[in-house]
Write a structure and sequence with these properties.
The complex is a heterodimer. By secondary structure, chain A is of the alpha/beta class. Chain A is 40% helix and 20% strand. Chain A has two domains: 121 residues, Rossmann fold; 96 residues, Orthogonal Bundle (Arc Repressor Mutant, subunit A). Chain A is built from eight helices and eleven strands. Chain B is α+β, with helices and mostly antiparallel strands. Chain B is built from 17 helices and 18 strands. In chain B, helix 15 runs antiparallel to helix 17. The chains are: A alpha/beta, B alpha+beta.
């Protein structure tokens, strides 16, 4: 199988170089572009598997470039920007980016996100939304009730029995907010009396296992002061 | 009961306010001004450009505000003018003068009855009539006041009048001709015929007959009183009105009085002059006028004040004024002004006196003063509001500039920082590095991480201090939030080896706040506590209720000497003085402070010895 090709577009040459190095160390082939037009050109000239694109670039900005690319292609796109406003993130994800990483990024996190997106698009293909009774799939998160295992973006995750039960409960009720007491009731099958933060600590452990960046969870979200929920 | 009433009142006021807001006066005012243009078909209006038209409408709106204000103030003036009729102050000195005249043997005597020796209750220099009224009448009646028969062609058979403490009583005979005879058609008649005759040294005249023989007079009087005594009335039941709000009480339908060997049917009326009592009807009328006037003026003044805010920033929605505060302020201003005005009017009217009754002459001056006051108020409020709105504009601009500056700067810092972090990461992977090199890089990595955090903190802080951040206020449980935060920070806490003692209530404590922000608040506080707590000394986290407040206290023993004050901690952001050598207190507490305030809570720092305590207060739901 030929090497996966990733296009990195940023007007800051040093950043492009650093990302390229980072990715090449992992065995990816990296194409470089230094403005929006160049990125579009590289996209048409080569077969690209993933695009990392800066938002603020000369000639054609990242948002416009993403819109143009999305007219013809479905490849994963990571938007990279120093703009950390929620509104920018929402805009970026809204117009077609699959992920939004803010500068200054943590190189390891960027790498993990790149791999995650690639797994989802290349390995898992279009099996994303095939939830059956025994298998629950939410985004890249897959829970098999028969095999009692969980995988994230196709990569197996080791969970303890309690952690698995909690995750199963939350995934079965996607979007619903559970309080710590309810989770305790359902998982431990005991009355939630003086449980303090038992459940909360478990949740944090689960998050550390299934999330790329547990501080900014993608799936298992905390509803502060209320409870927890799973969201895609 | 009182609380219920208060609640009802509050609900009513809220409904009224909502209604007023719904009316959207500003737009209505503009429509009105457009209508005026159409109605008068002003030809030059079409020639104006959009901006000029806008200023024309602005001018019209101001005019409308002024007109409403004028109406309000005139209403108040009318109230004041009404108010002058409300009562006449029969004061103690007047009373004592009468008494003196009587004691000196002057002929006030028979006007002032014996019972006037009775102690009167005085309040602020005025006798209280209301409570003693019935009693006084009764006594006056018993003590046989002069009563004089009228002869000749006069329609009155008996007219008796006596002046007691401000009351005027008289008897009228021959009720066959009904009460109409009681109606005086002019003040002059009443004043000249009855009041003017009450003079020392003179008897009362009735028609052409002047009784100069006092004994003869007394004898006749006795005769009548004997009969009256036999038929002592129970009460004054019917009340009629004669001569513009002067009241008469019909004592009893019929009394039989023997006069010149004839039995006469007599009716006793007690007439109470409008001067002498508090006339509720006039008072009510006066109050209604005053209330209408107040509503109009307050409305006009508020509208006038708000006009400035709307013109400067047209389409942009911004709260130039805090409506409640400004309305309360203006209300105080207006009420104060009106009280002063009323005091001036009242002094005039009272000073103008009972006898001369020239108060009417002051009415023109009243209106003039009211108009002056309206103009003054209009100018003041216009100036105040214009000034306020300009100041607000400036403040907004400054805030925006500051926020933009910080946002731009932190963006500019972020880009090179990205490179630094990336290359440190690449360097880290170099296999050729010496041991020292690796150590240097680990320091670089550490510090660049910190720099990154500081930049993002700074950015966040500037955003929320400039009021640019978005809040999602929801109902949440403070206890759960604390537990969640603690669970989230479990690794940091375990690593620090600190003993965290939680003292949380059994039940949840619900507050309204932004969960994400509040998480940051407690994360920062606990982080701070963990960083600077003396190893071995416990950190206390307490959540308790005090009335309607939920209070979170996080207390730790400092591992260093506290050489700064409570203010210093929170002023850090503005002053930028490093408190501790290496890390400083950080922006953490400043962020916590700002976020708590944003969510509507209170944030306090208390330092006692080496105890460092952070208190966060929220109103419970």
């Amino acid at each position: 199988m030929e090497a996966t090709r990733i296009l990195v577009a940023d007007d800051d040459r040093e950043i492009v170089y650093a990302i390229a190095k980072l990715l090449e160390n992992e065995g990816f082939t990296v194409l470089k572009a230094y403005d929006g037009m160049e990125a579009l050109g590289a996209m048409t000239a080569n077969k690209v598997d993933l695009l990392i694109i800066d938002i603020m670039m000369p000639k054609l900005d990242g948002f416009s470039a993403i819109v143009k690319i999305r007219e013809s292609q479905t490849i994963p796109i990571i938007a990279l920007s120093a703009k950390s406003e929620d509104s920018d993130k929402i805009l970026g994800l809204g117009i077609g980016a699959d992920d939004y990483v803010t500068k200054p990024y943590n190189p390891l996190e960027l790498l993990a996100r790149v791999k995650s997106l690639l797994r989802r698009s290349l390995v898992l293909g279009k099996s994303d939304s095939q939830s059956t009774d025994d298998v629950i799939i939410i985004g890249g998160l897959k829970l098999d009730k028969m095999a009692k295992n969980v995988s994230v973006d196709g990569k197996g995750v080791k969970l303890t029995a309690t952690e698995y039960s909690i995750l199963e409960l939350l995934m079965e009720n996607k979007g619903r907010v559970f309080s710590a007491e309810t989770i305790y009731n359902r998982v431990w099958n005991e009355d939630a009396y003086n449980i303090e933060n038992t459940v909360m600590v478990h949740i944090r452990h689960i998050r550390e296992k299934i999330e790329i960046n547990p501080r900014e969870p993608e799936y298992l979200k905390v509803v502060w002061g209320i409870g927890y929920k799973i969201e895609a | 009961m009182v609380t219920k009433l208060k609640r009802e009142l509050r609900l009513f006021l809220r409904a009224l306010y909502a209604w007023l807001v719904k009316l959207n006066i500003k737009r209505k005012a503009k429509k009105l001004s457009e209508m005026t243009v159409r109605f008068l078909s002003l030809s030059w209006y079409k020639n104006l450009n959009e901006k000029q038209q806008e200023s024309f409408h602005y001018f019209m709106k101001r005019c409308l505000a002024f007109a409403v204000l004028m109406t309000g103030v005139i209403c108040i003036a009318v109230a004041c003018m009404n108010f002058k009729d409300i009562f006449h102050i029969f004061d103690k000195s007047e009373y004592e003068e009468l008494r003196k005249a009587q004691d000196n043997g002057k002929t006030y005597g028979y006007f002032l009855p014996d019972w006037a020796n009775y102690d009167l209750e005085w309040k602020n220099g005025n006798p209280i009539f209301a409570e003693k009224f019935a009693e006084y009448i009764e006594t006056a009646y018993n003590s046989r006041q002069h009563i004089k028969p009228l002869s000749g062609e006069s329609t009155d058979l008996f007219v008796n009048k006596f002046v007691t403490n401000g009351y005027r009583f008289f008897l009228i005979a021959n009720p066959g001709e009904k009460d109409e005879r009681m109606v005086f058609n002019s003040w002059d008649y009443y004043f000249n015929y009855y009041a003017a005759k009450v003079e020392p040294g003179k008897n009362i005249s009735y028609g052409d007959l002047l009784i100069t023989d006092y004994l003869e007079y007394r004898r006749k009087e006795e005769e009548v009183y004997d009969i009256l005594d036999a038929q002592r009335p129970e009460s004054f039941k019917e009340m009629g009105m004669i001569y513009d709000q002067r009241y008469t009480y019909r004592h009893k339908e019929k009394l039989s009085i023997r006069y010149e060997d004839k039995d006469e049917e007599v009716t006793l009326f007690v007439v109470i002059s409008g001067f002498n009592i508090i006339d509720e009807q006039v008072g009510r009328k006066s109050l209604v006028w005053a209330a209408i006037g107040m509503v109009f003026s307050l409305f006009a003044v508020t509208m006038n004040a708000r006009l400035s805010g709307s013109v400067v920033r047209k389409n942009e929605k911004s709260k130039v004024f805090n409506r409640k505060t400004i309305t309360a302020l203006l209300a105080t201003y207006l009420v104060g002004g009106f009280v002063i005005l009323a005091a001036i009017f009242f002094t005039w009217y009272v000073g103008s006196g009972y006898g001369s009754y020239d108060a009417n002459r002051k009415e023109n001056t009243t209106i003039l003063l009211a108009v002056l006051y309206a103009v003054f108020t209009f100018i003041t409020t216009t100036m105040i509001s214009t000034g306020l709105s300009a100041a607000h504009e400036n403040a907004q601009l400054l805030k925006k500039l500051k926020a933009e500056l910080i946002a731009n700067v932190s963006h500019d810092i972020k880009t090179p920082l990205t490179s630094i972090i990336s290359y440190i990461n690449l360097l880290e992977k170099e296999k050729t590095l010496s041991k020292d090199g690796k150590y240097y890089i680990s320091i670089l990595k550490n510090k660049s991480e910190r720099l990154k955090n500081i930049v993002s903190d700074l950015f966040e802080l500037s955003k929320s201090t400039s009021g640019n951040s978005e809040l999602t206020i929801e109902n949440l449980d403070l206890k759960t939030l604390l537990l969640q935060t603690l669970a989230d920070m479990e690794d940091i806490i375990t690593n620090s080896g600190l003993d965290i003692r939680q003292n949380l209530p059994a039940a949840g404590v619900c507050v309204n706040a932004d969960g994400k922000k509040l998480y940051r608040v407690f994360q920062n506080i606990i982080d701070n506590a963990v960083k600077y707590a003396l190893p071995g000394a416990p950190v206390f986290i307490t959540l308790r209720m005090a009335g309607k407040k939920a209070i979170v206290e996080i207390q730790n023993t400092a591992s260093y000497e506290i050489n700064f004050t409570e203010e210093d901690v929170l002023a850090r952001y503005t002053r930028g003085n490093g408190l501790l050598q290496e890390d400083g207190i950080g922006l953490g507490l400043s962020i916590a402070d700002t976020f708590v305030k944003e969510c509507g809570g209170e944030f306090k720092v208390k330092i006692a010895g080496n105890q460092f305590k952070v208190i966060v207060e929220f109103k419970t739901v």
